Amino acid sequence: MASIHLKNLGHRYPASGAESDNPYALNPLDQVWEDGGAYALLGPSGCGKTTLLNIISGLLRPSEGRVLFDGEDVTDLSTERRNIAQVFQFPVVYDTLTVAENLAFPLRNRGIDNATIEARVADTLSMLGLDARANERARSLNADDKQKISLGRGLVRTDVRAILFDEPLTVIDPHLKWQLRTELKKIHERFGHTMIYVTHDQTEALTFADKVVVMNAGSILQVGTPKELFDRPRHTFVGTFIGSPGMNVLSCTFDGTTAIVDGVRIALDEATLAAAQAQGLASTNAALEIGIRPESLQVIAADANTANDTHCVNVEVVGVEDLGRHSLVRLRLGEQLLCALHPEGAGIPEAAALRIDPACTLLYADALLVEANNEPLLP
Ligand code: ATP
Question: pTM for the whole thing?
């Protein structure tokens, strides 16, 4: 196992960027992945996940910067010499070998003794529920089982410095996915490998990883626990990408005491207010936005009490969708649209107001979270 340090690393593909403003597929970054961590690398298609993973594994040489494993510079070493296991989106198996022989293959290649190979293969077969098929030729297996063999070939070695998974469950039946993710988590707890799991599926990322690394457009935007990403997204992209539906983001101004959305005042909590004041956001050119999760909004009847409550604002209901346990209420605040989750069957008032908890209202300047430890935007 190893810690992985991507030191001042960036990547431009030789042919890319000629026609775009940004030549980088991976913008310059400096990032440490801790020894034994279970990371998910999450982001939309084309954001640079595979590029980053292939640089870590050694399949791709970065156009700038270095890759360090436990402080050792491995930038010029092959995947094999880095001692990395990698599992790809589609099965990589030898059809003519049996299931057990496929699993034994990476161990035999390394000259491991037969007794250890037998024990490791048996253990891996049982982890993946393939014991009964150990002696079948791989070609007779369906796509799910073939991909299980690929996973097994990544997991069978205990001496690897990291295991990298590139969307490994894409071809797997949805029912099995959950089971295999749970199995991977158990394997991580048992062996403590550094694991990096690439996916564009937030459920997969949030259920597998201790830490989720959210990427967009070639940049890492935030590294955090699922809870941190949900509660305090440091970038509006993270807020909208994580959650279903994602965070509401409304453009606003700041007058030194509250946020103002289309003339409607939205109270901020003390810490956010202090940070906004310290950063001079009342007189900034930065684009300001508030972010509020649909789960934090309470739809109530507008009346005299809500009219006098600084935590309540009037809204127009523009639609309601039944999500089973909740309704998704689509609302208009000023000229902007947002949504709230409402308990199923609770009734939606015709004249509606929103109760907004300031503790759940985040403020963003140029898409970045405004918080106490931010650098001031203005000198
Ligand atoms: P996906 O989830 O679709 O696999 P990704 O997040 O893994 O996407 P990458 O495959 O790393 O993203 O691609 C990042 C960017 O680099 C994209 O703009 C892609 O078009 C570009 N790119 C990837 N491979 C090459 C290549 N070999 N040559 C030129 N450009 C490339």
Answer: 0.90
